[in-house]
## 1
Amino acid sequence: MQFAFVSDQGKVRRLNEDAGGVFLHPQGHILAVVADGMGGHRAGDVASSMAVEKIENLWMAAPIISKPTDAEKWLIASIEEINHDLNVHAAQYPDCEGMGTTIVVAICTQEFVTLGNVGDSRGYIVAEKRIRQVTEDHSFVNALVQSGEISESDAEHHPKKNWLLKSLGAKGPVKPSITTITVDHGNIVFLCSDGMSNKITEQRLMEILLDKSPMEERARQLVNIANENGGEDNITIAMVEYLPVGESEEIK
Amino acid sequence: MMIGKRLNGRYKILRAIGGGGMANVFLAHDMILDRDVAVKILRLDYVNENDLMKRFQREAQSATSLTHPNIVSMYDVGDEDENYYLVMEYVEGMTLKEYIQQNSPVSLDNAIKIMSQLTSAISHAHHNGIIHRDIKPQNILVDTKGDIKITDFGIAMALSATSITQTNSVMGTVHYLSPEQARGGVATKKSDIYSLGIVMFELITGRLPFEGESAVSIALKHLQSEIPPPSKWSANLPQSVENVILKSTTKDAFYRYSTVDEMHEDLKSVLDEDRFNEPKFMVEPDNDATRAIPIIKPDRNISSKTDTQIRTDKTKKAIPSAAPPEKTIKKEKKKKKKWPWIVTLVLLLMLVGTTAMAALGMFGPARVAVPDLVGESLSDGEDILEQNGLLLGDITYEPNEEVPKDVILKTTPKATRNVDEGEPVNVVVSSGKATIELDDYTDKLYEDVQSLIQNLKFDNVRIEEVFDDSPRGTIIDQSPEAGAELVPSETTLELTISQGEEMAAVENLIGMSPQEIADFEARTELTVNTTREEYSSELPEGAVISQDPAEGTELSLGDQVNVVVSLGERPLPVSNVVVPVVIEYLEKEEEAPPEEGESPPEVPGDPVPQNIQIFIEDKDNDISEPYEEFTITESTERTIPLKIEPGETGAYKVLRDGEVILENEIAYNENQ
């Protein structure tokens, strides 16, 4: 497996409220995370970076995960713990009141990938020259699309596109959406904030991901595309690539 | 942290009075106009502030044009540091949400009074081309007299214009969101009518029409379910009142009041007893059948025209149905006779046969895709719609900086969406660049209108300052003239501003020589007037010692500066010396030597007078001329006065019978 992570402020915002990273467990599994902070009072970056830091610490101390149920349980518990920490922090610091963040996490093992998310940061998988969004956006417009009330293209231009149904840091318990998929050689797990997913079609995204150029270069190219298309939001991507058969399986 | 701060030196923040999300509201005091105001501060973290501010202000400014007793006045828009703020009228009281919670159930009379004020205010806004987009009791204030004031006009638009809404946020309330807004369509005047209907529902029943576990389930109910009749919770509710709510909250905007004015009019008589039992407002549940008419073409053009007729007859409370009679019998009553052609159609339908009927029932009307009209002219767009079996619906004009006038910007539903044939497609059409009517700025102080002018974003504002007897900063002239219709971004506004009377600053004149003073006079057109001359040990003769007024004072041209001029070093005084002298009388013995025994001396004989001359050398006298001449016969005391000038030496000599008997020089001594 090899991985890449890029976070870019974009062209309009003064602050990068996104955070994320890719963390290699001593046992060899990889955890990738992207968090998109929110909050009107500059606390968005606090929320997202707290979330990432927390999950990194939990991950590095996590017991070895060997089956999907372990991964799912660990992920649900960890996300709940982050939510709790954010609430405690917001209660202590009035400046952070109302802060929140989305999160999308992928635990990548050689056999499977378990993804968990809250909010509208997305996880995609590229397999067999097809791309598929494997996370469910917790957004108002997505709920309307799911209910059949509006089309995908209506959702793209909906004025309330920014309304999230769930976020970390909101009061009360939060239930992440969790999925596990099997992976194979040559697959790519791709996580991003909406600053990326709003700026590219799935088709184009896949084309670039499957490009033969070095991973960092592909990641940088994607960020450039988002910026060329306005760059109104922060752009963050984390990707993990399972090397094709025949290539070395050691972690780069 | 904001408390106590002064925004742009003018608005002193006193205390927080509300807020959340992207904005905080504070009570503040306007130090210039000495009044309390509400200041809404938005925190925006964007790099390109100018662009953002331009768009934000343009939208917010449109709301400041609204003046209505039931609309919170917007006074000012500005920014300081990273705080973008709106200054609004401060209304003491509570939100309508709190009012309903405390006073529920609100009496019918009071509810209608509140609704009348609301519709009056919204009507005023609509007539000015402004759609609120976010009417909810949280945005409506009730003052201490019980009158209502709507706030946050155009803020929704201003915020979306700044693309601030692109940032993620928690769900807002969906209870008052019209179905078309929930679907992401363009908010229209009818969307405001829907929200007003929900507010009225809440006023009368004390509850909201839909409750659900989540915001999404509530939004879906607004999209899918009819508003439950408010009479369910409010017994004895006059039908006329319920009808207002039902008519303003139909799913399909077409069936709502066509204007808020119409709703306002309706509210006026809604409490007349003879209306209490009027028929319940109904939208035909199966009006699809009506719209299905085009399918049964023999002649498509004719049928679509008929359809137009139906859709545009907005005075109808309900639309008659062409569906099978058994479904509609109870509602048809009087309407059938108005639409005799429907009978024909129904008959025609029957002729087609029951199988066809079933098929129609199953498949419904034909579905057509909305064509892409963006970029088409309005008239072309209408033609294209007609060719596709669709109708032109509401036309909303929206200023646009790039797209020329009369070109379609947007349609609802959007292109490629499938809709029933015969459906109206609403269009948003560019009204070209936004024009404004230029205000009259003359006789106003530039600093008072500066922010207004800046907000309009003229291509260029050229300012010429001239001297004038009007107060400094007054705008004396403007071009273009007031009342001109223009596009600010294409206009250079020229202002002539008074600098006040021409003034010259007094310089430091002290030490100036007469020549320098003359230069100063020439340079400044001020007159220097010497009021006095004084000796000065420091300044040379002719130099200015002191001045009035002081350096830096602004004087009108021609004014005088009074100065005291040096006479130079004070001269030392003439020393007046008085020298006492004793002029001795000389006894002449040899002239009369007394002979011994022979003749006794002729004593007392008359003494011989001796001639005395006094010469003086001083300021007034020359030693070459006798100062005084007299004779003595005995020793005499005299005083010789000398006036000795500084640096000079005085002298005197006394001659007795031509012989110098006293002579002295006396040096100047200033102490004498």
## 2
Amino acid sequence: MMILTLAQRELRSLFYSPLAWAILGVTQLILAYLFLSQLQEYIRLQPQLKMMATAPGITDVVILPIYSSAAFIMMMVVPMLTMRLVSDERRNKTLSLLFSAPISMTEIILGKFVGIVAFILLMIIMMTLMPLSLATAATLDFGLLMSVILGLVLMIAAFISVGLYMSTLTIQPSVAAVSTFGILLLLWIIDWAGSKVVDENASGALTYLSMLRHFEPMGKGIFNTSDVFYYLLFIATFLILSIRRLDADRLQG
Amino acid sequence: MKTCRRQTSHSVWRPTMTNNNTLITVEHLSRHYGPIQAVSSVDFELKRGEVLGFLGPNGAGKSTTMQMITGNLAPSAGRISICGVDLLDDPKTAKARIGYLPEQPPVYRDFTVDEYLDFCARINRISKDKIASAVDNAKQRCGLTEVSRRLIGNLSKGFQQRVGIAQAIIHSPAIVVLDEPTVGLDPIQIREIRSLIRELASEHGVILSTHILPEVQMTCDRVQIINKGQLVYSDDIGNLDQRMRATTLMLELRNPPAEETLNSLAGVTSCEAMGGNRFRLSHNQDQSPAEQIAEQAVKEGWGLLELHPERKTLEQVFVEITSSDKSHSSEEEAAA
């Protein structure tokens, strides 16, 4: 209950600043452009696809690339959404309002996390309207669509938990944004090195760490609980770190 | 150095915890930031209906103490109990009974007053059906009704301060802690805030920190002076008044007699001419010769124009107390 109150305030603050609107508009515009060019491609390829025995459907050709691009765009958008979460409150000295209210650190962190996740869900819903518009003319593979959406939500929630933690570390929102972006990019590309390492074990570990590696199967419609647990563990780790860091504010001053 | 009666009686005090009128009990509270000792072994208590003034130079540890009482800062050592609930053991219950206004009001600048207070009511766990009346009540008491739909960021400093106070009293806590509530306000606003504080004291216990001395005289029932992290003085405002009573009389006469005549009056220890027929007469602490002087003046036809006891300002008392031991080093440190 308290978490929802805090999440609601976070959302409200986001929408009171032009940033949220700009982010919503810009991402929607870029994704719409990608969507259209992908659709164009599909129409061009249609004669050849007809000849193939097991041709990929419209969901594979048009919709899945959109979600992969969205994941990449979100990697740049999330740091901007999360950078202010704690650092701004610390700078404006509004944290003491939360600290002196009868709420726990866990509630504060979860409230902020849920607030941003809610915003991201809104973005994903808006984005999903585009593929859904195709349902009027073609048959979509809804199972695949659900799988890729779930994967995207989990991955972005993981991004947010990193961003939230970075925001608790600093008083400067821009520092939080840059370091969040750095970590996310590193986790994104970490398996590039992995693929070049000859040692089987080492490359396996690096590949396991890569966020992208756990997203890709869901993008193909493969729902594996170990991927889901990877994200859940990832999120829990960074949320716990954030709670502890916020508590350290009180302990160390 | 003067150590207060209260402080010494404190360490022995303890079993009366059930006493309903004691709102805050602080025992041996200490806090250090690395090697810097900000507060060391402070004890005090706050009773219902009392305004307690925290007085001290900059950097004396006032804010640190207040942050610890309100759960914003963990003490290095010591115990804080709020209405009998230990702040560290059960922070949620304890914090629900405290309202806190930090030095800088913790307001969200892009919220309107209504939205902000509504949020504050919610995080203080006021039940849904009472939120609207709590917000209205807080706005009314702090004179915010007219600005309720304006953005807090667009309000003047004085109004933002009031929003901060409204936030602190919205859940009608037993204790209101205000850290320098009148800083940066104009004189009229200061007067309003002071009367608001007096009004709050009728239902709540109030702790107030300030370095403005007259404010303490006007609003507080009890004063604690804190210097370099230590409680150096703690007493009722009445006793402080006593302490401020000086041993000099100011006298103005139209036809003054010779200075020696004044000097030889009963009870007068010395006389100093101030020019313009004004004199300052010193006397013993326990007996003021004012009455005899008046009688004498009438009898001799001196033409009495003015006769009043001089008072030490609170500033003088403050400096006396804070600088009684090592005056120079403390001033340097406060300035640093």
## 3
Amino acid sequence: MAYENGARENVTYRLRVNGRDHDVAEGWLGESLLYVVRERLGLPGAKNACDQGECGSCSVLMDASLVCACLVLAASAVGAEITTIEGLSTGAGATRGPSATQGSGALTDVQTAFLEEGAVQCGFCTPGLIMAVHDLLDRLPSPTDLEVREAISGNLCRCTGYGRILAAVEAVAVGRRTVGEPDKPAPSTRPS
Amino acid sequence: MPVVVPTTLAGVFEALAADPHAHLLAGGTDFMVEVNFGHRRPPGVVALRAVSELRSWRIEGDQIVLGSGLTYADLASGAIASRLPALAAAARTVGSPQIRNAGTLGGNVATASPAGDTLPVLVALDASIDLASAAGLRTMGWAEFFMGAKKTARRPDEVVTAVRIPVIDSREDYLKVGTRNAMVISVAGVCVCVDFTNRRVQCGLGSVGPVALRAPEAEGWVAEHIDWNARAVPDPRTYETFGSMVGAAARPIDDHRSTAQYRRHAVGVLAQRALMRLV
């Protein structure tokens, strides 16, 4: 990042990420939330690719709303509840840095479905897509094909061709219905 | 005081008084791209994200008043979408779900990009803009507010707090051309509003001029060719003529996204198609 041209203003602020408060002590005013979670908080799950909101690989939840972390000014996210891929399953977390959340590392149903359906190839887009799919299915438990496609339209995947990702979403939707409401009709009878 | 996150409008004015050169940050979807690529180094930022009073809407007399903090996602569904279908359609074409959850109406208005998706709609619907500062509130019509590409009449101490849209009996739509459905900056966009209250047609064009434009000749002509009692167009040739007149009103340029020639053509086709959908 081209932060070298000029003096660096040091700022201190507190972010709430995955249910924990983190003090950011040596940030630069213009750092994105993506940069801060990856480089300062040791949470590398959100990926950095385009830095302009095009690819969705940095998707996180901010106050329960799916956003691109690269387009959030980290210092302006004070007071917001931020969830990264590491915080999705309760107590889980792929951990690296000293301040990262430690947990069991258990996978969510969406993560499991991505593995079982072969929706992961190189894996770079996967955290962003998992965030987008959780966001979709929490809002719309039985999405139509069009709703699924619209929900993941901001997440680019260059490996899979999306077919297996759509299959994984379908598998989760069916799985959640089967667990929650066994009498619900099968997916083929859903409106599409 | 590099980054301030006030929770009230009064707090915003206070922060701006303390740091008059601070950048007002709305959804960040334009601003952060410039910062990430090192094109902008803000001396200070006043973020509007936590000012909840800006994220509401109300009916005030014969106007719908939309708070500037409403996101594209807020505009694209629910009660606002059913009252303002063209604005909802335009909001739905913006970016992706992630962008629509962050980007705001006020940000689109204050940034005043030639390709801003809500702007052709606001221009077609004769919107006016509320500008608030410590010195008071003023409301300005769109024609006065939008001065050029990324240029508005907003003073640095002012905040775009709301957009006012007249309540009318209308049919309206927004159509846009881009290279794909999602994550695309408009190559050409058109809002057509058939206003049954005032028996007129209003047409806003986007990405074909430095600011969103109207097409007054096309609007005046087509109003004479609508059967207002039947809410129909008796002569089907009207649509094509309307489209070419709208194309003639465009002031497009060649750039990295498209050519002036294609933009003029596309804006005419979109206008024709929108009118066919509406009457």
## 4
Amino acid sequence: MKLYSQIFIFLLMFIFAGCDEDVSTDTVDYYDDLQTKLILASSGETVMLPKGFIALNRSLWIDGLSNVTVQGHGIDQTILSFKDQIEGSEGLKIINSKNIILKDFTIEDSKGDLIKVENTSGIDFVNLKAQWTGKPKKTNGAYGLYPVNCENVLIDRCIAIGASDAGIYVGQSKMITVRNSEAYYNVAGIEIENSYYADVYNNYSHDNAGGILVFDLPDLVVKSGKSVRVYDNVVVDNNFKNFAPSGNVVASVPSGTGIMVLATSDVEIYQNKIYNNKTANTCIVSYHILEEPITDKEYYPYPTSIYIHDNIYKRKRMLPSLSFKQPIGFLLAMNYFNDVPDIVIDGIIDNKIEDKSSNNPHQICIENNSGASFLNLDAANDFENMTTDLGHYNCSLPVINHTVYP
Amino acid sequence: MSRLLLLVGICFSLSFSFQIKKNLSEYSIFSGDPKELIASDGFIHYDLITPLFTDYAFKHRLVYIPEQSKIEYKERDVFEFPEGSMIVKTFYYPHDFENINQGVDLVETRLLVHETSGWKAYPYIWNDEDTDAVLSVAGGIRPVSWKDKKGDHAIDYIVPNMNQCKGCHVKDGKFVPIGPTARQLNKDLDYHDGIYNQLDKWYDLGLLDNLPDIIPKIADWDDPASGSLNKRARAWLDINCAHCHNTQGPAKTSGLFLDYYQEDPKALGIYKTPIAAGRGSGEFEYDIVPGDPDHSILVYRFNSTDPGVMMPELGRTMVHQEGLQLIRDWIYSLR
């Protein structure tokens, strides 16, 4: 035992010695040190990142750790830069771990995603900035903060900039909180995809092509995402061009989209400020709008139980996005020129629903919003019976009651 | 500083049943000059029919099984190795691929050790003189050069870090070897005492618990006599992609499953849209467009060396031109 306690003390001394080190210029060997620390970190440990600009040319990996914190000296005080990356698709990759906290640093310019976390229970992103520097472009990586196949996800006080897909993207996960964060110059600001039990609140998503997306896609291991609350967010001016590489689903989101729900069930959108997103301040659509064939038999492509209430809508007069990649803007412009409705639904209904008497079979309820105009595209019938009459969609649903984080 | 940390790591490892050493030589895996790649007693040489591509590196594989224990035969999955087993994989480059007698350059040796707590990977990087290799948990970069019929080549070979090893070698959250499956081992090998089928030899040596009459055999990606174009392409995808792209692997979130036994065309990528490919899509709509390799994302990603685009995402800095051609031919044939 004595030997081990001595080794332990030696390790502690060593870690403390490492804490004071300020690496700012000599970054050549920094990768080895940092990666080694991240391999050897033991439960309860905090791995401190030094102050300054740290150039790393390979991915950092965390695997199989429990109860470890990786902490910098603050946003823009500790900067992990992967500008000259030669290996690895991510900046930081975390797999098969438990209760990991990442806090107080900037991470930027990786070739692929910035921070990807997979198969991990308990992952906190706190006070991080994830960005691609320079002009937003399609050669930027796809996702800034990217937990996938995780449980108990917290994203708090983070900033995401320049992602060619989503700045903050939570996929195929459960028990999710995204709050107090800011996303801009991404194709999608915040995206929740194929996930269960998510709260997205008090975020500021602006100047993306799409502000907040809640998607459910076929052919995935985790699907039929549901129970998502989007509230108290400010979703404004998401009129940035869609610079996503085509082929990705997000490339079909028109610039000027505020909040978009695609094929997800049990979504409640309330108390948000949704201003000046030029194509659709809010839209609710089925997967069929993408005109992709569906072979996944377990997949349900229709958004169901969607409750949009108590939001504040505003919209300046401006043309919707006019792009052949997302031609919906032309249709809107032809009919409404520069005064397109705030809340747009595609009106595509599952023909298999037995109860033909219901006029709102998918339970989409839009109620008590301030300044919100409405449009049902009737997309299933070649837009023949488009209507701005809210009609049966003016209704209530029970509010979502779930607890997502201790 | 990293060396010190390394030492700490080694000290800590004393608590494992396996004694991890700083220098590879301490295990006495090789007898004589390591460049000769002659195994010490107890280590059995083996080979795979269709190996993973790693920047054209040659690979020398050894397996060690503790006495009195046996490997459990599996028809499809990787064999179940007993605790205490060790797999030793050495990556090396002959100076001249056409004439291996001109000598070799050893680059890295990876130990996969089946400890009480599961498999662990330990990367060792050879020194410039190839006299010994040192444990390098953070991986490293080592320049290598060689000559083949296409000309002279020089690259910075990248040794993955310990965690990256696990990035591929994981199934259902557990570390597992990738290569030693029945279908990959079912081939002849030249042993000192003659040429034998590897599985027969393992059985004869008492290493395998069971050997059924009918054993699957994967096609050799590089040998048209070994199987149809479809079989060879599927063999290449199986070993290069399916360690991640299977329903229990790290890439299960992509919905693209490229394992040898996969039968769902969509899961294989045919007219499948990407999920989180980002710029890896190359602006293309589908993973595979039958008959049209130039518009298939698979081809685009195999043909890239950009870390944010290329697949596999680790373990290579070069394009496997011959493998790429095979996949192109295969996709073309699907029309």
